[in-house]
Amino acid sequence: MGDGATDPATEAFLAHRALLFTVAYEMLGSAADAEDVLQETWLRWAAADPGQVRDQRAYLVRITTRQALNRLRSVKRRREAYVGSWLPEPLLTAPDVAEDAELAESVSMALMLVLETLSPAERAVFVLREVFDVGYGEIAAAVGRSPSAVRQIAHRARRHVEARRPRRSASSQEGRAVLESFRRAIETGDPQVLLEVLAPDVVLMSDGGGVRHAALRPVTGAERVARMFAGGIGRLEGALTAEPVTVNGGAALLVRLDGEVDGVVAVRVEDARITGLYYVRNPWKLSHIASETPLTLR
């Protein structure tokens, strides 16, 4: 991307890079795919004449959206053949993400899974309009539709998401307190302690990608989830530790086995109980976690 800070194209791209990454990530649910989209965006941006671009931010968002849409259509086909439950790639996020309630919700595991149920065009329009407040004219240019069509897509996508959107999670302080109890419970493997922090209708989704052991379907109910965690921990050979981290703007645990990253457990907390557990063990989705570099998303 060039090595001089005085290069106008490089400076403009870097100034908006966090935003572009977040747009691509929210559309794709994969940091690896988002990084590929940014590389493709850079190549097209570097070939353009920045002096002829009136609004550089809008231009870069438009390129990123088009590239993400192209990739989204292909990855959707791959995900249909995915082994077990598919979960978004978890991201270690900086404290400023958790402090921005709207941004934190938009990248949360729960809402990202809702976005997976949208069509590619609906997802692009929803992310650009509802998360980043991009104007309908700019969105129309990005997705190749008329402004009136984009308004209709936005209405349809908003209605779809609202019907499936989970309730807003607990405050970060309450979430950390519940997470600490959950951490102690999984480190000891005590099912009774687990039951005390799990909501009766808790849902566990685990993603091993066919590489590591994981439940192939969502597991519902506190007793079933507690038994699964306790049984899995009991079969482990090695020392299990769980470190509190902020993932996708919310409370999570980084799980290590004998010091090596084994997975990430993100949680949803409501009324001082865990209502959602998202356990990512697929090693291909843990590279950004293993780097231990929190990301700023805007």
Automatic annotation (TrEMBL):
InterPro entries: DUF4440, ECF_Sigma-70_Domain, NTF2-like_dom_sf, RNA_pol_sigma-70_dom, RNA_pol_sigma-70_ECF, RNA_pol_sigma70_r2, RNA_pol_sigma70_r4_t2, RNA_pol_sigma_r2. Keywords: Sigma factor, Transcription, Transcription regulation. Residues 109-160 form the RNA polymerase sigma factor 70 region 4 type domain. Residues 176-263 form the DUF4440 domain. The keyword Transcription regulation applies. CDD domains: Sigma70_r4 (cd06171). It holds the Pfam family Sigma70_r4_2. Residues 14-77 form the RNA polymerase sigma-70 region domain. NCBIfam families: PRK09636.1 (NF007214), sigma70-ECF (TIGR02937), SigX4 (TIGR02957). Interacts transiently with the RNA polymerase catalytic core formed by RpoA, RpoB, RpoC and RpoZ (2 alpha, 1 beta, 1 beta' and 1 omega subunit) to form the RNA polymerase holoenzyme that can initiate transcription. Belongs to the sigma-70 factor family. ECF subfamily. This is RNA polymerase sigma-70 factor. It comes from Streptomyces chitinivorans. The lineage of its organism: Bacteria, Bacillati, Actinomycetota, Actinomycetes, Kitasatosporales.
